[in-house]
Amino acid sequence: MKYLLQLRYPAGTGPAEGTPELDAEMAEWGKVHTALEESGALVTAMGLEPDEASTTLRNRNGERVVTDGPYAEAKETLFSFYVIDVADLDAALDWAARMPNAAYGSVEVRPLSPFEQQS
Asked: What are the backbone angles phi and psi of residue 104, rounded to the nearest 5°?
């Protein structure tokens, strides 16, 4: 079963750039990423540009409406994601619990549609 792990953090939390705390967290990210690769569970992982780099499109009454920024005001920013292939939700939650941002942000675990998995 494939799961999307959406990694989020509240603005102003987490270690600051250029600090030993960030260096330590990045080392933890490296360990988790390597463990996912070595386990064979990693499908893909990507970081995302900041919210302000996004563009949102809506079709309203046949008219295209394009706005800068994310689709909704949120308290947490989506900054990265992993797609993993594991046996079940419990295994996905075990991986999510290892993500360093879980200590100050959140990891949303969402199963991918079985239709999408028929590749």
From this structure: -135, -5
CA distance 6 to 4: 6
Candidates 7, 3, 29; CA nearest to 76 is 7
Tokens at residue 97, please? 């619990």
Write down the domain spans for the chain.
2-117
Task: For residue 3, give the 3-state DSSP assignment.
Answer: strand
What is the topology classification, in CATH, of domain 2-117? Alpha-Beta Plaits (3.30.70)
Is residue 107 helix, strand or coil? strand
The pairing of beta strand 63-68 with beta strand 2-10: unpaired
Each residue's pLDDT tens digit, 32-77: 999 999 999 999 999 999 888 888 888 999 899 888 876 666 678 8
Beta strands in the chain (DSSP E): 2-10, 42-47, 55-60, 63-68, 76-85, 106-111
